[in-house]
Amino acid sequence: MADTSAAPLLDRSRTIAPPGYNRWLVPPAALAIHLAIGQAYAFSVFNKPLGSLISGDPANPAPTDWTPTQIGFTFSIAIVLLGLSAALFGKWLERVGPRKAMLAASLCFGGGFLIAALGVSLHNIWLVYFGYGFVGGIGLGIGYISPVSTLIKWFPDRKGVATGMAIMGFGGGAMIGSPLAVALMNHFKGSAPQGVAPTFIAMGIIYLLFMQFGVWTIRVPADDWKPAGYVPNEEHSALITTGNVSADNAIKTPQFWLLWVVLLCNVTAGIGVLETASPLIQETFSDAAMGAGRGVTAAAAAGFVGLLSLFNLLGRFFWSSASDKLGRKPTYLIYFGLGVILYALIPTLGHGLQLTLFVVVACVIISMYGGGFATAPAFLSDLFGKYQVGAIHGRLLTAWSTAGVLGPLIVHLLHDNAKEKGLVGAAAYQNVFYTMAGLLVVGFLADLAVTAVNEKYQEKGPVTIEAGGH
Amino acid sequence: MNPNPNTTAPVATEASSGGSAVLAWLYVGIPLAWGVSQTFMKALALFK
C-alpha cells in the first residue's frame, strides 16, 4: 500500500477508498452535489421578485425594472454554460478526480449566487448574468458530471440504479430550492427590495456548505476493486464493451452522435411539456370549456406543475434502474415508442376534456423525460467503457444545451402561430405536441441505429485512470 | 473490471461502517423528503 499522506488533500490519490469501504456512501455524496445544483430548475421562482426590484410591486413593474425576457436569459446562460463546461472540463475531471471537481463546482455555484447578489444590489443585470449564469453555470456543468464516472466505477453491477439516484437529485433540487427561496425572500423582505439579494447570499452560503459533504465524502475505488461476486451482465452484452474508448475517440464514432440526437430529441420534446404545462392545462380545461367554476385554476395548474416535477424525479430513478434489467437501447426505444403515442394523445385528450387521463399521460411523458437524462451515463459506459465516461458524458450534455434553446423556440413559434390563427384551448397547442411526437420518431430511429462501437476506436493495451486526462 | 490487475493503487487508510452510510443518507434524504412533501402539498391543489 503506497503512502499517500504527503499528497495534497485534494489529490486524487487521497480519495482512493480503503478495503472495506462502504460503496453506499458514494450515492449520498453525489446527491449532495446534485440536490444543490438542481436548484437551477427553480430559478423561475425569482422571476417576479427580480422583475419588481424598483417598483416593489410584481403586478406593476416600473419602466426601469427588468423584463421577464431579460430575467429569463439568466437561466438560459446557465444551461448553455452547463453543457459547455461539462464538455470542456470532463477530461480534467477524469484526471484530478471527483473531489477537486466537486470543490470547484461548489465554489462556482455558491460564488455565482454571491456575485448575482451584488448584481441585484446594484441593479446590474450583467452582473447577474455573469454570476448566476456564467460562473454558476460552470458550477452546474462540473457538478453534474463530477460524480457520474465514480458511481459507474463503484456500481458496475447496477450502473443505472447508481447514476439514476444521483441524477434524480438534480430533479429533486428544484423541489428544495423553490420553497427555500420563497421562505428566505419572505424572511428578508423588510431588509432589501423583495428580499432577493440577501436570499442569494444565504443560498450561496447554504449550498456551498451543503455541497462540502459530497466533496469530503466522495471516494474512488482502487483500480483492482470490483463488487463481491460481480459477474458482468451477459444478457445485453452485444452493446456492452469490455474495451475502453477515450473521450477524443468517442466523438469520432457514429454511436456518440446517435446518442447525442437521442438526448436532443428526448429533452426538446420534454421541454415542450414543461414550458407549456401551466398555460396548457388552464387554457385546455378552462371555465369556458368545462363549465362555470369547473375549470382548472391557476393554483391547480401550479399543482399540475408540481406533480410533473415529482414524476420527473421518480422517472429518473425508475427508468434508469429498469434499464439495468431491460438494457439501455430497449429502454430508450420505450421512451420514444411510447412517447410518440402519448404526445400525439395529448391534444385528443384535451379536445375530449379528459382531465384525469390528460394528467396521467403528461406524468408518464415527464417520467420518461427524466429517465432519458438518467439512463444516458450508463448507456455511454456500456458503449465506451468506464475509462473516460465522465468526459464523454460531459460532451454529450451539449445536446441538453442545444435542446434548452431549441425546445422553447419551437414551442413559442408554434404556439404563437396557432394563436395568430385564432386557435384556442387544446387546438392552440396541437401542433406543438405533434411536432414533438415527430421529434421522438427521429429519436427512435437514432436509438435503433445504435450498434456496438468498432474496436478500432478502443485504447490499445491497459489503461489507468490517472492516464485518463492527459 | 480492471484492465491492469497488477496495478498497485495507493489507498486511503480509513474504512467506513454501515452507520456512517445511514447518516449520509439522512443528510441528503431529509432535505429531499422536505422538498418532495412541499411539492406534493402543492400538487394536491390539482385534485381539489
From TrEMBL, chain A:
One Pfam family here: MFS_1
TM regions (residue ranges): 24-46, 66-89, 101-120, 126-148, 160-184, 196-218, 256-277, 297-319, 331-349, 355-380, 392-411, 431-450
Signal sequence segment: none
Residues of the Major facilitator superfamily (MFS) profile domain: 1-455
Database matches in CDD domains: MFS_OFA_like (cd17353)
Cited InterPro entries: MFS, MFS_dom, MFS_trans_sf, Proton-linked_MCT
The UniProt record lists the keyword Transmembrane helix: yes
Gene3D superfamilies the record matches: MFS general substrate transporter like domains
Keyword annotations: Membrane, Transmembrane, Transmembrane helix
Annotated protein name in UniProt: OFA family MFS transporter
UniProtKB/TrEMBL annotation, chain B:
Transmembrane segments: 24-47
UniProt keyword annotations, A-Z: Membrane, Transmembrane, Transmembrane helix
Name of the protein in its database record: Oxalate:formate antiporter
Species this protein is from: Hymenobacter ginsengisoli
